[in-house]
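Example: DUF72 domain-containing protein.
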Amino acid sequence: MRVHVGCAMWAHARWQGRFLPPALPPGERLRAYASWCDAVEGNTTFYATPARSAVESWAEQTAPDFRFVVKLPKTITHERRLAGSGEELRSFLQAMEPLESRAHALWVQLPGSFGPGDLGTLAAFLRGLPAAHRYAVEVRHRAFFEDAGPARDLERVLGRAGAEWVPFDTTAFFRSRPTSDAERDAWTKKPRVPRRSAALTDRPIVRYLGRDDTERTVEGWRFWVEKAAEWVREGRSPTFFVHTPDNADALTLARRFHDEVRARAPEVEPLPEPVPAEPPTLF
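Written out as structure tokens, the predicted fold is:
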């Protein structure tokens, strides 16, 4: 059984020299990250579809069972709101082809204004997607979290397409006031919706936002450790992404989460051994 864990990026200035080797060339950064975590959020694709050569490099640096959850470009999800985006979608899908099995799910993150009245558009969009990929949808309109009717309607739309509902759990983060600049910035930008934890497929995906303080982050994910172990016992293979406002320790936190799940579900396979930040010495 596999539980995959990862972060919101594979390169971070505060990881260099602490967790990852310093001064890595761009073509080696993902490879080093993949020795720590076996999944990553593809957030950069939200801003622009990458060159196919860049995606080929991503594939070359990762194992076939590494999981990319890749966000659709904002021109499709936020500007066109899933309508009339055929050409942009074709370009994006062609660019992602080199990932092959690594493209765990194509991630449709929708704006907070995309509400119950837009479900027909979402249903039509999902029906038009090629069956070769898995899809995951993240909504931020509060009606989907606070009203049972819209929630059931969304689950029905996703179920017909075999798509997963991706929760972004920020409940631990918003439990108390921010105490750092990074937390204050996140306080104004991150969605504030109730926690949702029902899996629709055999591969649930969770995004979790903790705090800059490690112990508060760990305390806040206790629910998800138990849920992930439960999913494993049900035969599911979840992917869990750890965020903190500054992400300075996200790599080690992701591995700690995995360790806590394995303590409850020993059948889960271990993560790879990380590449050392510094080369071994003779003495």
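The CA atoms of residues 198 and 253 lie 23 Å apart.
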